[in-house]
Write a structure and sequence with these properties.
Elements: E1 6-11, H1 19-32, E2 37-42, H2 44-47, H3 56-70, E3 78-81, H4 87-96, H5 101-105, H6 108-116, H7 126-141, E4 146-148, H8 154-171, E5 179-181, H9 215-223, H10 243-256, H11 260-266, H12 272-297, H13 301-329
Parallel strand pairs: 1-2, 2-3, 4-5
The structure holds adenosine monophosphate and tryptophan.
Tryptophan binds next to strand 1 and helix 7.
């Protein structure tokens, strides 16, 4: 029998997902779900690193329903909830004893959060600092071959690979070395600040399009997106000088499966307002389908919970197996 390669990925349920999550992560998940053995996780333990949610359970179920609404198939993939598989936290601790803290200090995601919270030092927790170790544990527990993520997670993936390699050097072949799968378009940027990543935890919700935004709101947000003042307007992909237009082209390119060069040619004669109308329409077409499915399943909580119970059970068997191996080689079994 042919043994399938393993894919693992996760998203934090820190808010409802955005088109950045869809384009950077979930679209890839769906493309590969028939090829590999895929484990798609809801990273609720990561979500508690920077916020105190009082509705994390609800957000986790929203995230699950959005996975399904986007086309993640619960019959062929393992869909699980990070906090319910205790091996993630257990491996996290063990690996944290094998990572030099200088390595963690170099993580750009930590550094940027550190800068953002600088005036609020009580927000800079040890969890925020060791976040990449938990992410590494998520990946290594499943002997993962491929990790489909957005460009912003590239450094964390390199970190995971280094930890796996160092551990293997010391103890033999314990972990598979994971490889990232990153879409070519890079990252989707914030609508009002196209130098920044579009993020679902942005304090200004005009910066992102949520997968649950209504059509009128999408039109309004895209209409207000920052472009540039070129006169006459030029529809051209140029990340450095025209980041706003490039972001709209990126979104359009992915949603219509058209390459950027063809888009530039096709849209050569239109102005920015017209471009925004086209982009908003394409987003609304895809959100219409996602929302229709989402609202048909979101209140079926027994169904949603049953997917997690079954996914957690399957995930735990694989995770336990890896953790046992680790316990053995470090002599605590
Ligand atoms: P997060 O929202 O930080 O939990 O990210 C979950 C997944 O979505 C990761 O694979 C990210 O790389 C991806 N992602 C999040 N925001 C973006 C974005 N603005 N552009 C591309 N990918 C993104
Ligand atoms: N840290 C990832 C992000 O914010 C989410 C995540 C948690 C993840 N664990 C993971 C992604 C394991 C891939 C693999 O984008």
């Amino acid at each position: 029998m042919l043994i399938k390669n393993i894919v693992f990925s996760a998203i934090q349920p820190s808010n409802n997902l955005t088109i950045g999550n869809y384009i950077g992560a979930i679209k890839q998940w769906i493309n590969i779900q028939n090829i590999y053995k895929c484990i798609y996780c809801i990273a609720d333990l990561h979500a508690i690193t920077n916020n105190n949610f009082n509705n994390l359970k609800t957000l986790s179920l929203n995230t699950l329903a959005l996975y399904l609404a986007c086309g993640v198939d619960p019959d062929i993939n393992i869909i699980c909830l990070q906090s319910k598989i205790v091996e993630h936290s257990q491996l996290h601790w063990i690996l944290s004893c094998y990572v030099n803290w200088n390595k963690l200090k170099r993580m750009t995601q930590f550094k940027s959060k550190y800068m953002t919270y600088n005036h609020l030092s009580n927000k800079i927790t040890a969890g925020l600092f060791t976040y990449p170790i938990l992410m590494t544990s998520d990946i290594l527990l499943y002997q993962t071959n491929y990790v489909p993520v957005g460009y912003d997670q590239k450094q964390h993936l390199e970190f995971s690979r280094d930890i796996a390699k160092n551990f293997n050097k010391k103890y033999g072949n314990i972990f598979t070395i994971p490889k990232p799968l990153i879409p070519k378009i890079g990252k989707i940027t914030s609508l009002l600040n196209p130098m920044k990543k579009m993020s679902k935890s942005d304090i200004n919700d005009n910066n992102y399009i949520s997968l649950l935004d209504k059509p009128e709101l999408v039109k309004k947000k895209i209409n207000n997106a920052i472009t540039d003042s070129d006169n006459p307007p030029i529809i051209k992909y140029d990340l450095k000088n025209k980041p706003g237009i490039s972001n709209l082209l990126n979104i359009l390119s992915v949603l219509t499966n058209t390459n950027i060069i063809d888009l530039e040619k096709d849209l050569n004669n239109i102005n920015y307002k017209q471009l925004k109308k086209i982009v908003a329409n394409e987003i609304n077409n895809i959100l219409f389908k996602i929302q229709k499915k989402y609202f048909s399943i979101r209140n079926k909580e027994r169904y949603l919970n049953s997917i997690l119970i079954s996914g957690n059970r399957k995930a735990k068997i694989i995770a336990e197996n890896t953790l046992n191996k680790v316990h053995k080689v470090i002599n605590i079994k």
